[in-house]
Structure to design on (321 residues):
C-alpha cells in the first residue's frame, strides 16, 4: 500500500506540475533524490535557467521512479524532457519488454546521451556474495518498480533463468533507502544501474564495509552480444573505500529524451545550453566530467533526433544537413 501511494503521489506530482506550467516552462523527469539522474536534471536546468533572459525558458527537475516512469511520462505528455537508460529508450521505441502492451512510441525523440551507467551489484562483506551467482538465497533489493534499475534486474534474472523465488527476500525499496537497508542488514545486497561515483554506493562502502561484485558469465555474455544497447564496462577502482580495483560488469548510457511534440525552439535552446557549457556541467558532478559531444550525439540513442537538437548539431557542423 505504501508503494502504491508513492506511485500515485508521483503521478499526481507530474500532473500538477504540468497543469501549472506556463508557456515557457518545462519539466525534466529524473529519478530518486540520491541518484545521478536527479543531479543531471538539476544541472541541465541550471544551465538553461542561466540564460532564461535570452530564450524565456524556465526549467524545473522533478523526482520520479526512474527510466520507465519517465518514458511513460513523456508518452502521456506529463513531462517535457526526461532521463532514461539507453536500453529502455530502445524498448520504448520498439515496443518491446515493458512497452510491449503499449507498442512502439513513434513520437519519442533523442536529445543526447550523458554518462555511462554500469549495472552495479553491491554486497555486504559478511554476506558471502563474491559473484553474481552468489545472490541466490540472499536478501536482495531489486529496486523501485518503474525504475530502470528494477527492469534491468528483471532482464538479468530472466537471462539466468531466475525469478524472485531465487532470493530469500526480494525487496523493492527505492534507491534512496537501499544503502541504509544494507547497512542495517535488512538486505545483504543491492543492484543499481547508475553512474559513478554515487552517494548510495559510497555510503554502503564507507559505513558498512560493502563490496562491488563482478557481473560476468555465459548468460551475461549472451545478453551483451544479443543487445546493441549493452556493453561490457567497469566500475573504476578507488572510487569507494575498500574497493581499490576496477570491477567488470555491463552497462548502458544515460540518455535525454523528449516527445516530437515539444517545441523545436525549446529543445534547441536546451541542447545549446548544455553543449556550450560542458565544462561547467562537469563541475556540477564527477560523472559529467569529460563528456564528449561526438559521443553524446550518437551513443545510446535509438530514437530519432529531435528537430531542435538536429538544428543545433547541424549549426555546429557535427552532423550533415
Amino acid at each position: 500500500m505504501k508503494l502504491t501511494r508513492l506511485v500515485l503521489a508521483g503521478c499526481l506530482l507530474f500532473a500538477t506540475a504540468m497543469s501549472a506550467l506556463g508557456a515557457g516552462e518545462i519539466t525534466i523527469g529524473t529519478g530518486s533524490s540520491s541518484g545521478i539522474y536527479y543531479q543531471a536534471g538539476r544541472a541541465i536546468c541550471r544551465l538553461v535557467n542561466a540564460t532564461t533572459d535570452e530564450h524565456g525558458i524556465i526549467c524545473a527537475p522533478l523526482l520520479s521512479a526512474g527510466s520507465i516512469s519517465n518514458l511513460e511520462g513523456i508518452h502521456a505528455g506529463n513531462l517535457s524532457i526526461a532521463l532514461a537508460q539507453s536500453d529502455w529508450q530502445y524498448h520504448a521505441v520498439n515496443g518491446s519488454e515493458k512497452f510491449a502492451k503499449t507498442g512502439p512510441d513513434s513520437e519519442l525523440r533523442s536529445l543526447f546521451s550523458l554518462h555511462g551507467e554500469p549495472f552495479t551489484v553491491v554486497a555486504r562483506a559478511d554476506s558471502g556474495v563474491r559473484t553474481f551467482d552468489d545472490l541466490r538465497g540472499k536478501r536482495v533489493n531489486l529496486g523501485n518498480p518503474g525504475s530502470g534499475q528494477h527492469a534491468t534486474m528483471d532482464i538479468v534474472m530472466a537471462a539466468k533463468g531466475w525469478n524472485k523465488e531465487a532470493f530469500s527476500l526480494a525487496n523493492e525499496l527505492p534507491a534512496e533507502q537501499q544503502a541504509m537497508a544494507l547497512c542495517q542488514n535488512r538486505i545483504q545486497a543491492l543492484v543499481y544501474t547508475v553512474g559513478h561515483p554515487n552517494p548510495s554506493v559510497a555510503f554502503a562502502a564507507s559505513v558498512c564495509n560493502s563490496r562491488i561484485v563482478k557481473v560476468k558469465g555465459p548468460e551475461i555474455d549472451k545478453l551483451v552480444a544479443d543487445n546493441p544497447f549493452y556493453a561490457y564496462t567497469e566500475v573504476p577502482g578507488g572510487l569507494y573505500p575498500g574497493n581499490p580495483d576496477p570491477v567488470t560488469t555491463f552497462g548502458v548510457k544515460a540518455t535525454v529524451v523528449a516527445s516530437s511534440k515539444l517545441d523545436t525552439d525549446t529543445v534547441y535552446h536546451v541542447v545549446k545550453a548544455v553543449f556550450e557549457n560542458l565544462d561547467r556541467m562537469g563541475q556540477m558532478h564527477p560523472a559529467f566530467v569529460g563528456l564528449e559531444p561526438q559521443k553524446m550525439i550518437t551513443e545510446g540513442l535509438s530514437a530519432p533526433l529531435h528537430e531542435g537538437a538536429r538544428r543545433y548539431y547541424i549549426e555546429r557542423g557535427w552532423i550533415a544537413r
Notes: The longest helix spans residues 2-19. The chain has two domains: 2-115+253-315, 117-252.
